[in-house]
Fold this protein.
Amino acid sequence: MMNFSALGAAHGTATLAALAFGGFVLAERKGTLTHRSLGAAYVAAMLAVNLTALGVYRITGQFGPFHVLALISLATVARGVAAVIRRRPGWLATHYYCMAWSYLGLVAAAAAEAVARSPLLARWVHTATDGMLVGLACVAAVLVLGVFLVPRLQARALAGVAES
């Protein structure tokens, strides 16, 4: 049986919104008004995702590794936004890198949640620790994939783009 709360519902809703907005931002041509508008919506949704995540304690009842990941996510989004606002040399590469990792982290967390709640794993996941380990393994797998994907996608996205 799952526990539902207003905070959990807000977290889930913000996560779905961030996944959608982030997906559209990735697909959209960069630098356009649509890109900036969807990007702002993504940042707002990510703030909601991470702030609500910091209030969810149902796995262990205390501050844990997923809270640390939420703080890292907040810092990554903040750095990506700061790069755009400050526009110092190399800002575009920093912005792309941070926002790409932000989205990849979001996908990793969503995948971990989906896998941990999968009925197929119910026979192996008996404790909160088991669930946390499965979730962290899933996050690690997606992030390892990102180590190979992000630099390639960044090079392609920034090829021939001038910083302004």
